[in-house]
C-alpha cells in the first residue's frame, strides 16, 4: 500500500505543478478581453462573457452580499479541485468564514461552501458533468447551475462519493430556497434573464 499511496501523492503534486505551468502559459497568451479561461480535466476552455451570463452572476452575487462579506464571495478566481487537472474559475463561489489562502496564494477547495455556475452553450457539458463531479468529490455543500437556455436552476446538495444525493430543479421566476443549507438564504430568480 505504501507504493500506491506514494504514487497517488506524486500524481497529486504533479497535477498541481502542471496546472500551475498551464496557467502560467495562459497568462502569457493574448486572451481576448471578456473571455473566461479555466482548465477542466486538462483541457483549456475560453468562454466569452455574454450579457445574460453576467447579469445572472451579478444578481447572485448581489443577493449573497446581503449575508456574506465581500471577502467571502468570489467570482472567476482560480481554485483547484480534485480530479485530473481541474483549475476552475467558478462564476460565483462563497468561501468559509475562516478560509485562508495557501502559501502559493490560492484558495483551497476544502473551504468552498457554495458554487454557482451559469451555463454557456459551449461549456454546458462541463458544468453538468466533470465540474459537478469535482464539486461533489470536494464535498462542496451547495452547487447551483443557472441555465438560461432551460430557464431553470438545478440545485445540488448533500455531496457524497463524487456526486450529490439531492437534486432540485426550480424554474426561473421561482425562489431557490437554500435556507436549510449552509448558505442560509433564498435566492430570487425572477430577474434572471432568459436566452
Task: Explain how this protein is built.
There is one protein chain. By secondary structure, this protein is α+β, with helices and mostly antiparallel strands. It has a single domain (2-187), classed as Alpha-Beta Complex (tt1808, chain A), CATH 3.90.1570. The protein is 28% helix and 32% strand. It contains four helices and 13 strands. It has helices at 2-28, 51-64, 124-128, 130-137, and strands spanning 35-40, 43-48, 73-74, 78-81, 86-89, 92-95, 107-108, 112-118, 142-147, 152-160, 163-171, 176-177, 186-187. It has a six-stranded mixed β-sheet with strand order 3-6-8-9-10-11. The longest helix is centred in the N-terminal third of the chain and has 27 residues, at 2-28. The radius of gyration is 17 Å and the shape is globular. The termini are far apart. The relative contact order is 0.13.
Topology:
Layout: H1 2-28, E1 35-40, E2 43-48, H2 51-64, E3 73-74, E4 78-81, E5 86-89, E6 92-95, E7 107-108, E8 112-118, H3 124-128, H4 130-137, E9 142-147, E10 152-160, E11 163-171, E12 176-177, E13 186-187
Parallel strand pairs: 4-7, 8-9
Antiparallel strand pairs: 1-2, 3-6, 4-5, 6-8, 9-10, 10-11, 12-13
Amino acid at each position: 500500500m505504501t507504493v500506491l499511496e506514494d504514487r497517488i501523492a506524486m500524481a497529486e503534486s504533479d497535477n498541481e505543478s502542471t496546472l500551475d505551468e498551464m496557467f502560467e502559459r495562459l497568462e502569457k497568451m493574448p486572451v481576448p478581453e471578456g473571455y473566461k479561461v479555466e482548465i477542466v480535466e486538462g483541457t483549456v476552455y475560453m468562454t466569452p462573457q455574454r450579457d445574460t451570463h453576467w447579469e445572472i452572476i451579478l444578481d447572485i452575487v448581489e443577493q449573497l452580499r446581503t449575508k456574506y462579506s465581500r471577502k467571502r464571495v468570489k467570482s472567476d478566481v482560480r481554485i483547484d479541485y480534485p480530479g485530473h487537472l481541474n483549475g476552475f474559475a467558478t462564476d460565483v463561489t462563497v468561501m468559509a468564514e475562516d478560509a485562508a489562502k495557501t502559501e502559493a496564494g490560492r484558495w483551497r477547495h476544502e473551504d468552498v461552501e457554495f458554487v454557482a455556475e451559469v451555463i454557456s452553450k459551449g461549456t454546458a457539458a462541463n458544468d453538468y458533468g466533470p465540474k459537478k463531479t469535482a464539486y461533489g468529490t470536494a464535498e462542496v455543500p451547495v452547487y447551483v447551475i443557472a441555465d438560461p437556455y432551460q430557464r431553470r436552476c438545478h440545485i445540488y446538495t448533500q455531496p457524497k462519493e463524487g456526486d450529490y444525493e439531492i437534486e432540485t430543479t426550480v424554474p426561473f421566476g421561482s425562489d431557490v430556497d437554500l435556507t436549510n443549507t449552509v448558505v442560509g438564504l433564498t435566492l430570487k430568480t425572477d430577474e434572471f434573464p432568459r436566452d
